[in-house]
Design goal:
- The protein is α+β, with helices and mostly antiparallel strands.
- The protein has 2 domains: 114 residues, no CATH class; 123 residues, Nuclear Transport Factor 2, Chain: A (Roll).
- It is 20% helix and 34% strand.
- The chain is built from 4 helices and 15 strands.
- A 4-stranded antiparallel β-sheet has the order 4-1-6-7, with no helix packed on it. It has a 4-stranded antiparallel β-sheet with strand order 3-2-5-8, with no helix packed on it.
- Helix 1 packs antiparallel against helix 2 and helix 3 packs across helix 4.
- The chain starts with a strand and ends with a strand.
- About 2% of the residues have low confidence.
Length: 267
């Protein structure tokens, strides 16, 4: 059976940024509160993994600038990365590989507070994922590279808006192939679930694809130089469908890698 690893995160009164092997898996810098338990097999390597956490005291609102704590809430955070107990229905630790509890005894709370820990390895992660195994390090992101990634993203978004879902899925085949491997699920099951979600999304009467001019995006080198995170400058996902009146939003994050000399969507 495939070992499944989870990241459990809880933060109140603090902004929190978490990277796994240099990939930003949690980004909540405003201190609005965050609580989630997420599978992370897709970001793990068989060895030499590192978990990094940055805790940030958010700026106080104008109404409570006199409050030195910013939000007035307790400044607390708990982060743990663990191996899931085989057979358990809910995410259950069988072995904790890295853990941060904040505030920590004997540590003066100053911000930002940066913490990192290498994971006890090697890990029993599926060896067949393209990320880390087939991708090459990216030396830099020039204008031509940005244009190439942007054109792929635009093509996928147009295919989705035109309800050509099979062709859109083809562009993202490596991403979902890796997901199937990481989770130990049949690829056809992953594909069926993705297509079903997309069908629901594009069937909403007033849903519209948001504009995708290239100057609306940031292209950030992450993941130990194996990934480029393409996201909107306001932090929203690269592909964004929205019904403003109904406040319905569907976002599709995009991470690119190079396999050989080709840019591909890999996450």
């Amino acid at each position: 059976m495939i070992d499944i690893y989870f990241l459990k995160v809880s933060a109140t009164g603090l902004g929190i940024l978490i990277q796994l092997n240099g990939v930003p898996v949690v980004v909540e810098p405003e201190g609005f509160g965050f609580e989630e338990t997420m599978p992370v097999n897709q970001w793990l390597k068989s060895d030499n993994n590192t978990l990094q956490v940055s805790l940030i005291r958010p700026e106080p609102d104008a109404e409570d600038e006199a409050d030195s704590g910013g939000t007035g809430e307790p400044e607390e955070a708990q982060v743990s990365l663990f191996l899931h107990q085989q057979g358990a229905d809910a995410p259950t630790p069988a072995l904790v590989l890295a853990e941060l509890n904040w505030p920590s005894a004997g540590v003066t709370p100053t911000y930002p507070h940066d913490w990192s820990q290498p994971l006890t390895g090697p890990l029993n992660v599926p060896p067949g994922m393209s990320l880390w195994n087939r991708t090459v390090p990216i030396g830099g992101i020039d204008t031509h590279a940005q244009q190439s990634m942007h054109q792929i993203a635009v093509n996928v978004a147009k295919l989705l808006s035109q309800k050509n879902l099979e062709e859109a899925f083809r562009f993202m085949g490596i991403k979902y192939q890796d997901e199937a491997i990481a989770e130990g699920k049949p690829p056809e099951r992953i594909k069926a679930a993705v297509i079903e979600l997309w069908e629901y999304m594009v069937s909403i009467p007033d849903i519209r694809l948001e504009e995708m001019a290239i100057d609306m995006f940031d292209f950030d080198l992450v993941g130990e130089q194996h990934l480029v995170k393409m996201a909107r400058k306001d932090g929203m996902p690269a592909i964004l469908f929205e019904d403003a009146e109904d406040e319905t939003v569907f976002g599709i994050p995009l991470y690119f890698s190079k396999i050989g000399d080709q840019w591909v969507i890999i996450r």
